[in-house]
Amino acid sequence: MTLTSDRTTRVAIDVSTQNSPEPPIIALSNIVKSYRMGDADVLATRSVSLTVAKGEFVAIMGASGSGKSTLMNIIGCLDIPTSGHYSLDGVNIRDLDDQALSRIRNMKIGFVFQGFNLIPRMSALQNVELPMAYAGVKPKERRERAIVALRLVGLGERLEYFSNELSGGQQQRVSIARAIGTNPALILADEPTGNLDSKSSNELMALFTELHNHGRTIVMITHESEIAEYASRVVELRDGSIIRDQRQIARVPSESTNTAASPQDGDGSEVR
Ligand SMILES: Nc1ncnc2c1ncn2[C@@H]1O[C@H](COP(=O)(O)OP(=O)(O)OP(=O)(O)O)[C@@H](O)[C@H]1O
Ligand SMILES: [Mg+2]
């Protein structure tokens, strides 16, 4: 990519993947989020500091009420911390007004939600195109990029299907295609396997592993330690603080996504 970064938004997005000295994708420093409840302040996060470099696959774990969603909302620029500092891909979030914040959210983050959040009366293709439309990508190009993204997640044959015509696993794959279509700096997933059966969950993790292997940065909330095994780093929260932050050798999926219909082949456990 030799074009200068000031030509178009699209080029500016691509430039963030160059190998010049790069800022971390996420730099959280002493993040506090407090809520006023009656006379008292509830601390949803207490002085959380966390740095995530480009290309990491991080699982955020913790019991209910430990502050996971609060932290995700801050990382996703959906909420502003009470105090502390947050830079997303080198941009200081505190400097931005609401409009700039939603722009950076749209350009830099691809969201994957537990409930998929697809628009029901739109085809898979249209759902994937939507964030690109908001990001100002021209119709012809967003169509091309949406097709590439849907093929990548194994849905090249389902481009025109509505979401109610797709299985849960397929819907979640559409939402991943939607998340990567804008070529974001970060994929942010909140309980992405929460509504999936174990087979679909493993297929989804095979897809995340593939994206990770291709250099994508992924931050994923999960309650399930089996799902967290696919990440290369696990961060655990308790009562709004990080109590564990460990790198690990990520679990290798048993089969690639596109052939995941027979995930037990070669294992033998199912056959016998
Ligand atoms: N809008 C709010 N107003 C008041 N308190 C809040 C608010 N949002 C979160 N909290 C409090 O902050 C703490 C952390 O909440 P958070 O939603 O981040 O937990 P969580 O780890 O995502 O839990 P779960 O696994 O149940 O989704 C909780 O004690 C919660 O009651
Ligand atoms: Mg939550």
What can you tell me about this protein's structure?
The chain is of the alpha/beta class and 272 residues long. The protein has a domain of 188 residues: P-loop containing nucleotide triphosphate hydrolases (Rossmann fold). Helices cover 31% and strands 24% of the residues. The chain has 8 helices and 10 strands. The strands form 2 sheets. Strands 6-7-8-3-9-10 form a 6-stranded mixed β-sheet, sandwiched between helices. The chain has a 4-stranded antiparallel β-sheet with strand order 2-1-4-5, with helices on one face. Helix 4 packs across helix 5, helix 5 packs across helix 6 and helix 6 packs parallel to helix 7. The protein is globular, with a radius of gyration of 19 Å. It starts with 8 loop residues before the first helix and ends in a 25-residue tail after the last strand. The N terminus and C terminus are likely disordered. Magnesium ion binds next to helix 2. The site of magnesium ion (MG) has 2 residues, from helix 2.
